Amino acid sequence: MRLFDTHAHLDFPQFDPDRNRLIEKLARQGIRVVNVGVDLDTSRASLGLARKHHHIYAACGVHPHEAKDFSEDTLRKLAALLDQGAVAVGECGLDYYRDLSPRDDQRRAFRAQLELAKEKGLPVIVHLRGEARDELLEILHEVNPGRGVIHAFSTVHGPPRDFLDLGFHIGIGGPVTYRKNAALRALLREIPLERLLVETDSPYLPPEPHRGKRNDPAKVRLMVERIAGVLRLPPRDVAELTFRNACALFRIGA
Ligand SMILES: [Zn+2]
N or C: which end of the chain has fewer CB within 10 A? Predict the structure, then answer.
């Protein structure tokens, strides 16, 4: 069974003790990963992992938490990094939940990265948290690179339809396994199968029964199994279709 975790941060210090061992294990299990940058340093680290491992792919971008430091210089450096084999721009977006950067800066950095994605012909990995849905959709209507994923999709994102209409995929992670998250499982039926992706957001958002522990890309299997149960499909089919969707979105050979 092939699996594709479309969102992980394997360069984060949580993986320092066993990173190489874990990455080798993922290769043996047929698991591919998009490793996602949150600033210039982690974007560089993502490219480094992708160069070293055939089953790891890099996304380069600046997270809304870091948007306060997003300058013309950041944009130039990010553009140069993207040319080194990145498969997506991200993660970028709006976070009005933690508000770690002023909202003006968040909007400016997001817009600039959407324009960059458009220019480079790359998909975007979008982070959306807090009461930012309407503004994010407004910005996407103005500058839509045409391809991308709304990552860690949850009920606070509202109906998937508005994002689907803009050409986006929907990334489903650990919360789909939480006992109290029947509402998210109900949303699954609104996502066309060809737009569905799975992700872990490792080391964060571990699925049941691993809550409170470090998450890792091998656990994406648990999301696939839960989604398969809801959609009454064989897990193998959900694994294969999400694998192919990821390859198509990020233009990676299947
Ligand atoms: Zn992330």
Answer: C
Q: Assign 214 to helix, strand or coil.
A: coil
Residues with Cβ–ion distance below 5 A, ligand 1 = 201
Scan for tokens 């600046």, then name that residue: 62
Q: Print the domain residue range for 82.
A: 3-13+29-246
Instruction: Give the Å distance between the CA of 36 and the centre of ligand 1.
Output: 6
What is the value of pTM for the model shown? 0.97
Q: How far is the CA of 5 from the centre of ligand 1 (A)?
A: 12
pLDDT digits (tens, 9 = 90+) for 62-110: 999 999 999 999 999 999 999 999 999 999 999 999 999 999 999 999 9
Give a yes or no: residue 172 inside a domain. yes
State the distance from the centre of ligand 1 to the C-alpha of 63, rounded, in angstroms: 8
> How far does residue 45's CA lie from ligand 1's centre (Å)?
14
Give the burial class of 31: count Cβ atoms within 10 A of its Cβ; 0-12 exposed, 13-18 middle, 19 or more buried: buried
Please write the tens of the pLDDT for every residue from 4-21.
Answer: 999 999 999 999 999 999
The dihedral sign for the CA sequence 123, 127, 132, 134: positive
Give me ligand 1 centre to Cα 124, in Å. 13
Q: Residue 200: what pLDDT?
A: 98
Measure 231 CA to ligand 1 centroid, in angstroms: 26
Average pLDDT over residues 154-179: 96
Residue 117 resides in a domain: yes
